[in-house]
Write a structure and sequence with these properties.
This protein has 209 residues and is mainly α. It is 66% helix and 0% strand. The chain has one domain. The longest helix has 52 residues. The protein is elongated and about 95 Å long. The two termini are 33 Å apart.
């Protein structure tokens, strides 16, 4: 279950709870029936209503957790596929096996995305648009780079830059699907200068990555 879906259900649950609370207050004020039977019936039903809501929200949380696990698996495979493509551009004389292995990893990642996300605008009559087009473009770049005698080594550097730019751009959108927070304890010499000491002690050059 996606972030926006579970957010929608929780907002709906809060709205219903507030509506029930207001209804209960109004009934308690205006119930003039003998022994306040209407109010008693309402309060008697409240545990059942809240119980059903709790079960449904628990189900939504479980669906969200399962979806997050799917995303993490997809993310790991995407990283492996894209980094294989980036490394492929650094091979001076790639052979067919390296070429095919890289393409298979990218092809697998492309289809795995289809297993987690629907196409944009997809329905029974329309195939829709692939949701993360740069991944397919990375596949095409490697396919065009080829291998062996057909390897276009003069295009390797440009291909490397293009793949890195495509990945940097698309991963920003994919990561929005995750529930992420800043770490409680980080190590960044750009944020905390005191953490630069290990670099200075061992003569390590600080570089932005």
């Amino acid at each position: 279950m996606m972030k926006r879906t579970i957010r929608k259900w929780f907002i709906l649950a809060i709205v219903i709870f507030i509506a029930l609370l207001i209804t209960g207050i109004l009934i308690s004020i205006f119930d003039n029936t003998p022994q306040r039977s209407v109010y008693s019936t309402f309060t008697g039903l409240m545990p059942l209503i809240l119980g059903i809501a709790a079960v449904w929200l628990g189900y939504c949380v479980q669906r969200r957790n399962a979806y997050q696990q799917q995303l993490r698996s997809l993310w790991s495979n995407l990283i492996e596929a894209v980094h294989s493509a980036i490394c492929y551009t650094r091979i001076e004389h790639p052979i067919e096996e390296q070429y095919l292995t890289t393409l298979i990893k990218l092809s697998t990642a492309i289809d795995e995305i289809r297993g987690v996300f629907c196409n944009l605008g997809e329905n029974n009559s329309k195939v829709g648009l692939y949701p993360f087009e740069p991944i397919k473009n990375i596949y095409l770049l490697i396919e065009n780079l080829s291998f062996g005698d057909r390897h276009k080594s003069c295009d390797s550097e440009k291909c490397h830059e293009q793949i890195f730019a495509l990945w940097k751009d698309v991963r920003k959108e994919i990561l929005k699907e995750f529930d992420r927070e800043e770490p409680s304890f980080s190590h960044s010499h750009w944020k905390d200068l005191s953490q630069s000491r290990v670099y200075e002690m061992h003569g390590i050059k600080k570089q932005a990555t």
